[in-house]
Each structure stands twice: as C-alpha cells, then as structure tokens.
Write a structure and sequence with these properties.
The protein is of the alpha/beta class. It has five helices and eleven strands.
C-alpha cells in the first residue's frame, strides 16, 4: 500500500480527458460506457459525478462475469427519482436516475466516539468514495493539487500515507467545492443494467 497515493495522484494529474473514471484492474466496464458518459454530462452539465451501477459476482463465477452485456438505456429518456416528490411510485425505482446530494458537511459535528465505535454518518444517499464513478477531471486535478500541498512536513521530509486515495479524494473534493445551503445535487446513480462488474475475491488473492 505504500506510495499508492503518490501513484494515483500522478496518474490523475496527467489525465487529459474532460472526465475521469478509476476502477481496479480486475473489474469489467460495459463497452458502451463512453457513450453513456457523454450523454449524461450533456444532459446534466452542472453535475460533478456520475455513479455507475455495479453488479457483484462471487469468486469463480466466470461465466456470469463474462456474459454478454445488456444494452444501456438512453440517458435523455430516463426519469429522475426525487425522493421529495410525493407523486412518484416508490415501489419501483429501478428505471430511474437517483440523485446524489453532496456530503452534508454543515450538518455533521465531530463525533469523538468514532474512535471506539462504528461510524454511522456515512449512511445515506450521498457518496464518499471516489472509485467506480465518473468525475469532472478539472475538479479532480484541483483537489489533487491541494492534497499534494499538504504532504510536505519540514524541508525534504514529506508525509506519505499508508492508506489509499479512495475515500480521501472523494470527501476532499466535495469539501473543497462545498457550498452552504440545502443539499446540493452533485450527480446521479445510474440505473440497471449494470455498467460495471466486479468479483468478490477472497482475502488471500486480494492486493
């Protein structure tokens, strides 16, 4: 795990496309994902993030993992599920784009008990992790620059964390561009069929 933050930030800072997606090497992307991404940001130009619909498979389910992909829906034809709307049928949300609000930084107080008990503030419709989502590259790179600026300690000494960049970058980006007010919608979760497939590998063969 040592040096993973430097490795990932170096790759992200050298990205040249307008949108950035990070996944693991053992995960599979739908072959038409680019078309879906372009359609999404054309319809929602103010969005920061497009979260992929992910389907998990048990280790060894190779046949299911490599099965033919289903056609993806046209973004412009999808309805947006707004939980505040009372005129929508809540029994079936499978065909909707689900709104992703920004992390509610202004509603959370520091809970010192998090050191001795399990966190609960990560539950909700917001997202914290960076991976498996499509982000605006410009915002990602601006956030990476801020993170890098915090690593130097004194003179030639720098702090290189042992953990990965996933949750740090996802939360840091939202905090950097956070605006006070009623939960800003920063993106949407895509409906099925899945755009990403991943295998639940046993611990002995993980990184």
């Amino acid at each position: 795990m040592r040096g993973e933050i430097i490795q990932r930030i170096s790759g992200l800072m050298n990205a040249t496309a307008p949108y950035t997606l990070t996944i693991n090497c053992d995960e599979f992307l739908h072959p038409d994902i680019l078309t879906m991404v372009l359609q999404y940001f054309q319809r929602f130009p103010d969005s920061w993030v497009m979260r992929l619909c992910t389907k998990r498979f048990q280790y060894g389910e190779t046949k299911e993992l490599t099965a033919p992909w289903q056609p993806l829906p046209q973004i412009e034809e999808l309805l947006v599920w707004d939980k505040s709307s009372k005129n929508q049928d809540g029994s079936d949300r499978s065909g909707y784009l689900k709104e992703i609000p920004i992390v509610p930084f202004d509603k959370r107080k520091l809970d010192l008990m998090c050191f001795v008990r399990e966190r609960k503030d990560h539950h909700g419709p917001h997202t914290e992790n960076f991976d498996k989502k499509v982000w605006l590259t410009q915002m990602v790179q601006a956030t990476c620059k801020d993170i890098v600026s915090l690593l130097p300690l004194m003179g030639p000494f720098k702090y290189i964390p042992f953990w990965c960049l996933d949750r740090l970058l996802g939360l840091f980006l939202q905090a950097k561009f956070f605006e006070q007010g009623q939960g800003k919608i920063i993106g949407h979760l895509m409906p099925s069929p899945e755009q990403l497939r991943m295998e639940n590998n046993p611990p002995n063969i993980e990184d």
